[in-house]
Amino acid sequence: MTVRIEINGRVYEDEVEPRTLLSDFIRHQAGLTGTHVGCEHGVCGACTVQLDGEPMRSCLMLAVQADGRSLRTVEDLAGPGGELSALQQAFTEHHALQCGFCTAGFLMTADALLRRRRVEPIGEAEIREELAGNLCRCTGYEGIVAAVRAAAAEY
Amino acid sequence: MKPAPFRYEAARSLSGALELLAGDQDARALAGGQSLVPMLNFRLAWPELIVDLNPLAELAHLDASGGDLRIGALTRQATLQRSDVVAAGWPLLIQAVAHVGHAAIRTRGTVGGSVAHADPAAELPVALTALDARFHLRSRDGARSLSAGELFQGALTTALEPGELLVEIEVPASPPAARTAFLEHARTHGDFAVAGVAVILAPGEHAAIALLGADAVPVRAAAAEQALLNGAGPGEAARLAAAGIADDYRRALLTTLSERALDQVMA
Question: Would you say B195 and B254 are in contact if contact means Cβ atoms under 8 Å apart?
């Protein structure tokens, strides 16, 4: 089946099998390898991307279901010259990553949260609640929560 | 960890979807995919045909204009969670849906999918059981409506026949004085619950308690409900609610959770 999927403002058109997962389309067919694939059953959060601005697991959607839809992946966060977004900069400053495997998922989850809540101040409990769907085995999460809190002012 | 091959059809209309489901004994309806796609990835499910319901906007309504809340089966859990209408009239659903997976799961996960999947650890079936919801089913050949007790048959098992689809959930309004609580215990936040309880109480008027983890299906605690209407306090009603559970650990959990929930609604 032929699908046309817009990712980060560019349309990718390709042939897929019905069983092709969106996460595999993003990595193998669109070539956007910033999105990582961990557990492939919706538990780890590494493959989180944004669909209509909302965070979602790209391993739990078929590529055919994204036909005609618009997605955003971690590659869209940095500026055209590669300059880091405020959230990415905060991650580096607060030691919010070590091995980096989970980072793309955390960034896309946190970015969606901060965009949705840019009007009202956001508390630490809400940040922790929202990030609970992403697993990190390196940092112990404290740096990640601190980075999201710090970046909230920039949104 | 990739699905086995299957045919894929995106539904163009409800009648078209029912026709597709009726025409293939090995077809599965795909709603939010937050349980079915993991099962495909694990190859615990290997349907011949996937009928994707997601294009059916007619199944994604959330409407309280008639007094009862009518939830289209394809309504996203995130939509339910953010609904002011639901928060005002059916707060138990807001309290329960907050425990469903994580934010990124609720973005795609649907209310109807959660019901039709019938996981014994799922929160929404328990809340809907407490709320005396009616479940409206359609098939190519007809329509019928079931209560929670009729629909939920066992772990991952419902009364849905092959070719039959859950299309709408109808939730009656609670008395204006009713207060609600949903509490659960899970090993980590967002993980499958070990035990949980949904409570609705309007003193002297209406009492409902539904338990998660007491059995493979949601269980109404009828004796505890009657005791509450007769003036029982949280401790006595909670003991009655969990009294029939054989497993010591689950009985202890459900006694404590029930008492805490009743403390909340009676405070």
Answer: yes
In order of A17, A51, A103, the CA distances from A14 in angstroms are 10, 19, 28
Chain A residues lying within 8 Å of B34, measured CB to CB: 42, 57, 60
Four-way CATH pick for B179-266: 3.40.309.10, 2.40.30.10, 3.30.390.50, 1.10.645.10: 3.30.390.50
The sheet with strand A54-57 has its strands ordered as A10-15, A2-7, A70-72, A48-51, A54-57
Q: Does B49 touch chain A (CB under 8 A)?
A: no
Q: How many CB pairs under 8 A join A and B?
A: 88
Please compute, for residue B170, the number of CA atoms within 13 A of its CA located in the half-sphere on the CB side.
12
Q: Alpha-carbon distance A112 to A130, whole Å?
A: 10
- Structure tokens, A75: 């590659």
Cβ atoms of residues B35 and B12 within 8 Å: no
Q: Does domain B7-52 have CATH number 3.30.43.10?
A: yes
How confident is the model over B185-204, as a mean pLDDT? 93
Chain A residues whose beta carbon lies within 8 Å of the beta carbon of residue B113: none
The pTM score is: 0.96
* Cβ-nearest to B34 among A1, A19, A42: A42
Mean of all residue pLDDT scores within chain A: 96
B184 φ, ψ to 5°?
Answer: -145, 165
Q: Which chain B residues are closer than 8 Å to A65 by Cβ?
A: 10, 30, 33, 52, 54
Return the CATH superfamily for domain A86-152. [2Fe-2S]-binding domain (1.10.150.120)
Res B110 pLDDT > 90: yes
The domain locations on chain B are 7-52, 57-171, 179-266
Q: What is the pLDDT of residue B188?
A: 84
Contact A109, A126 (CB under 8 A): no
Q: Give the pLDDT mean for B97-106.
A: 96
**What are the pLDDT digits (tens) for A27-60?**
999 999 999 999 999 999 999 999 999 999 999 9
Buried b / exposed e along B72-110 (16+ C-beta atoms within 10 A): bbbbbbbbbbebeebeebbbbbbbbbebbbbbbbbbbbb
